[in-house]
Amino acid sequence: MIGKLSGRIDYRAGDHVLIDVRGVGYMVYCSDRTLAGLPGAGEVVALYTDLLVREDNLQLFGFTSLVEKEWHRLLMSVQGIGAKASLAILGALGADGVSRAIALGDVTAIKAAKGVGPKTAQRVVIELKDKAPGVMAMGTGSVAEAMGEVPASDDFDVIETPKRKISAPNASAQAEALSALGNLGYSPSDAAGAVAEAAGVEPDADVSTLIRSALKLLAPKS
């Protein structure tokens, strides 16, 4: 399976880009949010990818982080969520937003995505709530940092197994806060919900701040 692509963008379309890797063009479908963050035609880009195999079609989907890719995989496992709906959810909320919404059981946030109804959104939250702690603990492996700086030459590769590395400013803080709360005896789901809520209030909070805020949220209400 193709796990990562690095090359030059040949052209951009409404829902995909064509990436030239050593003369071979790969059509990669992305969420609106991911597409908006990509450079223009002729520029270097690197994306984690997931290959969807159907009887009559092969489709590559591209992601800027491992968390985004993992949520796509998990969202697709929910009945009623196909590739289009998954990208719509990721496009509307972003990977961190999906983590936060599912950890907090926020059905309203999920159903805000185009084409996702209330019943499907509820199913997403119910089925994936227990997955949120593990995904949040991954952080967000950036393609550029995980594989090193993308080369400026035409020496690009199709990589099968990318490394994981934290890159987003708050991702490692959330992962460390989750670990600390787990060591204190809190359940993964409770810890994930508290950290997600705390991170939503203070997106740039450091580890100590997140832990303190999460502990306040987890404290028994008098």
UniProtKB/TrEMBL annotation:
It is found in: Cytoplasm. GO terms for cellular component: cytoplasm; Holliday junction helicase complex; Holliday junction resolvase complex. GO terms for biological process: DNA recombination; DNA repair. Keywords: ATP-binding, Cytoplasm, DNA damage, DNA recombination, DNA repair, DNA-binding, Helicase, Hydrolase, Nucleotide-binding. Residues 171-222 are annotated as: Domain III. Residues 1-64 are annotated as: Domain I. Pfam families: HHH_5, RuvA_C, RuvA_N. GO terms for molecular function: ATP binding; four-way junction DNA binding; four-way junction helicase activity; hydrolase activity. Residues 173-219 form the Holliday junction DNA helicase RuvA C-terminal domain. Homotetramer. Forms an RuvA(8)-RuvB(12)-Holliday junction (HJ) complex. HJ DNA is sandwiched between 2 RuvA tetramers; dsDNA enters through RuvA and exits via RuvB. An RuvB hexamer assembles on each DNA strand where it exits the tetramer. Each RuvB hexamer is contacted by two RuvA subunits (via domain III) on 2 adjacent RuvB subunits; this complex drives branch migration. In the full resolvosome a probable DNA-RuvA(4)-RuvB(12)-RuvC(2) complex forms which resolves the HJ. Belongs to the RuvA family. This is Holliday junction branch migration complex subunit RuvA.
